[in-house]
Structures are given as structure tokens and as C-alpha cells.
From TrEMBL:
InterPro entries: Glyco_trans_15, Nucleotide-diphossugar_trans. GO terms for molecular function: alpha-1,2-mannosyltransferase activity. It comes from the Eukaryota. Belongs to the glycosyltransferase 15 family. It holds the Pfam family Glyco_transf_15. This is Glycosyltransferase family 15 protein. It comes from Monosporascus ibericus. The active site is at E292 (nucleophile). Keywords: Glycosyltransferase, Membrane, Transferase, Transmembrane, Transmembrane helix. GO terms for cellular component: Golgi apparatus; membrane.
């Protein structure tokens, strides 16, 4: 019996669709990270290029880095982590990665901070994860508590608006406190009084590449103030008045602007015009501060102290959801010499979902460009192209 023509056509269409379906499944994913997003800023994603250690003076592991008082080569620095007791497993994972790739050679101390006392289990297990010294510090109440000038009613009203704008963690007061502490208080903790450089580490982050030089010495010997791995756009509705408040502050203190600042980077309106508009003049591009290697002398300067106090009084840590990342980034971009800000392209890093992934054989488990389509979309949140455009890759 002959099959009616429309039925044959339908059958053929079904077969074709099946083939197309199979093709979409088995076709090779994009094998390299797309560099399209870098067009008009830099030629292509620099992480596609083979890369190694930075230029300049590098100090290697030696006897002087043995644990304890034998470590005479170590400088005035610590790894630090603000962490909750419940995040012990995640903290151990981060420690294992950083110890394996770097710190077992240099034995810098770990300093842990918490707003409640650390449990014995937390201390025992983290102590066992390193040969280096470990310190456990309670945050003073006056550094953590909501400041007296914040109105509880106004905070509650503000949370509603933030939630309408889908700002994550808006109703978690502890998140606001955490952002404020990381912005302007951590370096005032008495345990850090005699410490200058810090490497901030969060639970559940990954380090992939072997680093064979003392990164703190790198900062000191090469006059670097701040090192980052990843930059991202922020949610503009979490910081609508951060830039306007900053503008007021600059108007009061024009002398604080550094002549070699990164204002053009902070105020870029070309790449993400809507972000700039909603954040009232700030691109929202920021150093992703769950990774930072920094010189606390900058945060302790009169300039930063005045800036932080201005912001703190304005109330945006609570009435909006100002993050420590945009606050640190704006301060560095305005008040520091931009040549003192360093992209650690050689430190393979991930805080899910974003990567800094160098193309180097020292890196295990992170392969440049190993992005699925979904991650390629996330990757658009990456604003490093703008940093390279306005500042460079130093
Ligand atoms: N001790 C303590 N640590 C906190 C608190 N809130 C956040 N943290 C830490 O601050 C960092 C950032 O918090 P997280 O919840 O990971 O925020 P996200 O990375 O922005 O999603 C992590 O290291 C947390 O362990 C808190 O209330 N107490
Ligand atoms: C370490 O640095 C801090 C902050 O810059 C400073 O106060 C302290 O004197 C330094 N300590 C040593 C031993 O150099
Ligand atoms: C760092 O700064 C000091 C003091 O300003 C200067 O003497 C030195 O040459 C600088 N080093 C580098 C590597 O730029
Ligand atoms: Mg986190």
C-alpha cells in the first residue's frame, strides 16, 4: 500500500529533526574560550596565550621558609579567612589547594576570623591541614555590630526595595555586616596590627597552578599594592548611590585623587551602558574580592579611612547592599597609582562559577577555554577586557 505523500513528508521531516538533534548533542563544544568579547578592547583573551611567572624580582623557596622561627625569609604577611564554623569542610578544601600549590613551600601563617568563637573541631582540623602557624581570632563586637546610626525601620523598608530588584542576600543582615567588615574593618583587627600584606581566601575556592615564588615578596619588591585574578560586573541595583556618594567625597577631597588613577576604567559606559546608567556613573566593574592579595597600608591610609567613614555614614552597607568588592575597587581605582595594581594571571583560581585559568603547564585541572555554552554566557560578566583596555596587563 502506497503511503500518502504528506505522511512521507512528515516522516522525512522527523528523520531530519532527529539527525539535527543528534548533531547538537555530539558536536564538539567550543574548544577555546571565545575571544569575541575582547574585540575593540584588546586583540584577544590573553589567557589563551601561553603565560608564565611575572617579570621583576622573584624570590624562590629556600631553607629560610621552613615552618616556625626558622622561616627567616618570610615577610610581614598572612593568609587570612573570614569563615563560619559550619564551613569547615569548604575551608579545608581551600587550604588543601593553596597548601599544595604554594604555601607548603613558604609556610605563611593562616589567620582565621569569626564573629563567634571557633569550635575545637575547626581548630584541630585546620591546624592539621598545614605545617604553618594557624591563628584563630574573634572579631570585636564593635567591628561587627550594625552601627548606631543605622535605623532598623529604614533597613527593613530598604530590604523590600532590594528584594523587588532581586538583590541576593538583601534580607541577611549578616551579609551586610560581612561586606562592611571586609570593606573597612578587617585590617583594624588587633591580630593584624603588625602585619602588612594579606592573601584573602574563602571556603570552597580552588587553586590550580603551582606557584614557585613568594607572592608577598613579589608585592613588596615590585611595589604592588593590590593583586587580583578576576573582575566582574556587579548588580547595579545593589549599589545605586555608591558612585554618587563617591562623587560627593571626591568633591570634598579632590587632593586624594591619584594623578595616575584608573578613573576611565571605573566610569566606562561603552561596554555595559545599562550598568553604568543604573549605577549612576560607575561601570560596576570590580576586582572580585574573594581573592585578594593586598598591602594593608593602603587601607590604613588617611585617604581610605576618610573614604570608608564617608560611605559608612551614608548607610549604603545596610540600606543598599554595597559589597566590599566595588568599595575596594573604587578606592584603588581613584586613590592609588594604577601601575601598582597587579593581575595575577599565573594564579589559577576558581570561586564557582568563574575562573582565572592561565595557559601554562604548571596548572592542573583548569584548562584555558574549557567552557560549556552556559559558562560562555557567564563569561560575559567578566570585565577584564576593560581593565586591559584602560590599564594594561601589568
Ligand atoms: N564568620 C562569618 N563569616 C561569614 C559570615 N558571612 C559571610 N562570611 C564569610 O564571608 C565570605 C563570603 O560569604 P559568602 O556567603 O561565601 O558570600 P558570597 O561568596 O558572596 O556568596 C565567606 O568566607 C564566608 O565564610 C558570617 O556571618 N560570619
Ligand atoms: C609589619 O607591617 C606593619 C604594618 O605596615 C608594621 O606596623 C610593623 O611594624 C611591621 N613589622 C615588621 C616586623 O616589620
Ligand atoms: C619601589 O619603590 C622604591 C621607593 O619608591 C624604589 O626605590 C624602587 O626602585 C621601586 N622598585 C621597583 C621595582 O619599582
Ligand atoms: Mg563565597
Amino acid at each position: 500500500m502506497a503511503i500518502a505523500r504528506p505522511v512521507r513528508a512528515l516522516g522525512l521531516a522527523a528523520i531530519l529533526m532527529w539527525c539535527f538533534f543528534l548533531y547538537t548533542i555530539v558536536r564538539p563544544g567550543p574548544s577555546i574560550k571565545t575571544s569575541a568579547d575582547f574585540k575593540g578592547t584588546v586583540e584577544r583573551d590573553p589567557q589563551l596565550d601561553p603565560s608564565g611567572e611575572p617579570g621583576g624580582i622573584l624570590v624562590r623557596a629556600s631553607d629560610g621558609y621552613a615552618p616556625g622561627i626558622a622561616g627567616t625569609e618570610r615577610i610581614n604577611a598572612t593568609i587570612l579567612a573570614l569563615v563560619r564554623n559550619e564551613e569547615l569542610e569548604g575551608m579545608l578544601q581551600s587550604m588543601q589547594d593553596l597548601e599544595r600549590t604554594w604555601n607548603h613551600k613558604f609556610n605563611y601563617p593562616w589567620t582565621f576570623f569569626n564573629d563567634v568563637p571557633f569550635s575545637e573541631e575547626f581548630k584541630r582540623k585546620t591546624r592539621a591541614a598545614t605545617k604553618a602557624e594557624t591563628r584563630y581570632e574573634l572579631i570585636p563586637k564593635e567591628h561587627w555590630d550594625t552601627p548606631s546610626w543605622i535605623s532598623d525601620d529604614l533597613y527593613k523598608e530598604s530590604v523590600k526595595i532590594l528584594e523587588e530588584n532581586e538583590i541576593q542576600y538583601a534580607d541577611k543582615i549578616s551579609y551586610h555586616k560581612m561586606c562592611r567588615w571586609n570593606s573597612g574593618l578587617f585590617y583594624k583587627h588587633p591580630a593584624l596590627e603588625h602585619v602588612r600584606y594579606y592573601w584573602r581566601v574563602e571556603p570552597n575556592v580552588h587553586f590550580f597552578c603551582d606557584i614557585d615564588y613568594d607572592v608577598f615578596r613579589y608585592m613588596q619588591d615590585n611595589n604592588k599594592t593590590y593583586g587580583f585574578t578576576i573582575t566582574l560586573y556587579d548588580a547595579p541595583k545593589s549599589i545605586p548611590t555608591l558612585w554618587p556618594e563617591t562623587a560627593k567625597f571626591i568633591a570634598q577631597h579632590p587632593e586624594y585623587l591619584h594623578p595616575n588613577n584608573a578613573m576611565a576604567w571605573l566610569t566606562d559606559a561603552q561596554r555595559r551602558p545599562v550598568h553604568n546608567e543604573q549605577a549612576n556613573g560607575y561601570s560596576t566593574c570590580h576586582f572580585w574580592s574573594n581573592f585578594e592579595i593586598g598591602d594593608m597600608d593602603f587601607w590604613r591610609s588617611q585617604t581610605y579611612e576618610d573614604y570608608f567613614n564617608h560611605l559608612d555614614r551614608a548607610g549604603g552597607f545596610f540600606y543598599e547592599r554595597w559589597g566590599d568588592a566595588p568599595v575596594h575597587s573604587i578606592a584603588l581605582g581613584l586613590f592609588e597609582d594604577r601601575s601598582k595594581i597587579h593581575w595575577f594571571r599565573d594564579i589559577g583560581y576558581q570561586h564557582i562559577p568563574f575562573f582565572n585559568c592561565p595557559n601554562s603547564d604548571k596548572c592542573k585541572g583548569c584548562i584555558t577555554g574549557r567552557f560549556t555554552d552556559g559558562e560562555a554566557w557567564l563569561n560575559k560578566e567578566d570585565c577584564r577586557p576593560n581593565w586591559f583596555k584602560y590599564v594594561g596587563m601589568g
